[in-house]
Amino acid sequence: MDREMYKDQTGFSWHDPVWLQQNPLTEDTCISYFHGSIFYDNDKDLVYKATKINPNADDQGFRVTKSVKEYNNTLKCVSMYFIIDGIIFQAASLRAVLEERLERASFCLKNAIQSILKNGNHSLKEKVPWGGENQDDDVDYDFLFEESKPKRVEKILTSALNELDDL
């Protein structure tokens, strides 16, 4: 099967104002409209299906799924598109969304670690409401702030920062 059908086209959009002036965009005409777009592949193993995004609304929002027929006549969705007010665009893949969120989380985590390394661990003890002294619970907070611990914590944070840079 041609790898073109799996190509990421999330940066593109398409619309045909002439077609839209001559035809109403409905669930029945949606595939005909999609057929003229840059996203349509004329492969006999592909199946396109259009559904309204919100069946109870009068808006022109549609979801088009591009599926491939597999050997046992089952359909496997290979990409999804949205048509909103006549503009067609490809939906991002789950992988792309997760990669973006992981990248954003990594950025925030790196900034937090750099801030801790820059400001030092002494500021942590000052911000503890009980002054870093041991209270009635079982955690020995003084142990966390012994003189030898900040260097070890700094080493761990530096190592974590290097790992994040390698992502």
Automatic annotation (TrEMBL):
Function noted in UniProt: Component of the Mediator complex, a coactivator involved in the regulated transcription of nearly all RNA polymerase II-dependent genes. Mediator functions as a bridge to convey information from gene-specific regulatory proteins to the basal RNA polymerase II transcription machinery. Mediator is recruited to promoters by direct interactions with regulatory proteins and serves as a scaffold for the assembly of a functional preinitiation complex with RNA polymerase II and the general transcription factors.
Quaternary context: Component of the Mediator complex.
Location(s) in or outside the cell: Nucleus
InterPro entries: Mediator_Med6, Mediator_Med6_sf
GO biological process: regulation of transcription by RNA polymerase II
Pfam families from the UniProt entry: Med6
Family in the record: Belongs to the Mediator complex subunit 6 family.
Cleavable signal peptide: none
Gene3D superfamilies: Mediator complex, subunit Med6 (3.10.450.580)
Protein name: Mediator of RNA polymerase II transcription subunit 6
Record's keyword terms, sorted: Activator, Nucleus, Transcription, Transcription regulation
GO CC, any one term: mediator complex
Gene Ontology terms, MF aspect: transcription coregulator activity
Top-level taxon: Eukaryota
Lineage: Eukaryota, Sar, Alveolata, Ciliophora, Intramacronucleata
